[in-house]
Amino acid sequence: MIAVENVRKTFRSGSHDVEALRGLSCKIDRGRLAFIVGPSGSGKSTLLYLLGALDLPSSGSILVDGHDLTKLSETDTNTYRRDHVGFIFQSFNLIGNLTCVENVLIPFLPRGVTAAQKARAVELLTDVGLKHRLDHRPRQLSGGEQQRVAIARALVKDPKLLLADEPTGELDSKTGDEIYKILRHLQAQRQTTLVIVTHDRRFITSNDQVIEIQDGQLVGEDLYQTRADLR
Ligand SMILES: Nc1ncnc2c1ncn2[C@@H]1O[C@H](COP(=O)(O)OP(=O)(O)O)[C@@H](O)[C@H]1O
Ligand SMILES: [Mg+2]
Q1: Residue 46 CB–ligand 1 contact under 6 Å
Q2: Which of 30, 103, 145, 180 could form a disulfide with 1 if both were Cys (CB 3.0 to 4.6 A apart)?
Q3: CATH label of the domain that carries residue 35
């Protein structure tokens, strides 16, 4: 479903360049849970943002269902980002003066919310165990609960691709376990492709794909797998 081919990403930082990704290639199957792992600064978030078309590579291509994200028009890029991808961030990014339901409905706010969409938001919040918190505001919730709202928000448009950047980075380990349980459950239920950036390997199981990067390049077993696939 996703093929990253020889991607480079260089950031200009003041007077010098930072090469965040240096000719990286990898594949992620549809409906799979894939982890992007590696040390801090290795390019994990950069890769994730490229998959979500939040940024463009300096060179190389990113094929999602056969479409190269680097060649989409601005309109198509916006549509992809808005309708086909859900994002979950480390810091939840909820809006403080909106209730849980309203936060989940944020993706629909620009065009007005229908009753069906509101019902869907309530259903999702119920799925993540927050039925009793629908009209609460983020400050009334624990970190784990806030992240569950963010997960519901990421899923409200039924995206084909769900991207999470260190989703448990600000949570204690028990709450982290709960969040992974929810993510796995929702992913299996919907067959969403889920890509998670983490430096915590304890959540990885043998069924998951692991994309290990170091200094902007693929390392480890998956490197050999991908090379064989691309041949
Ligand atoms: N917008 C940016 N401008 C300049 N440098 C950046 C930017 N984003 C990331 N970098 C640099 O690119 C490298 C990879 O960053 P990142 O993808 O965030 O790593 P990770 O998520 O693995 O910690 C780092 O050296 C980081 O400082
Ligand atoms: Mg990062």
Answers
A1: yes
A2: 30
A3: 3.40.50.300
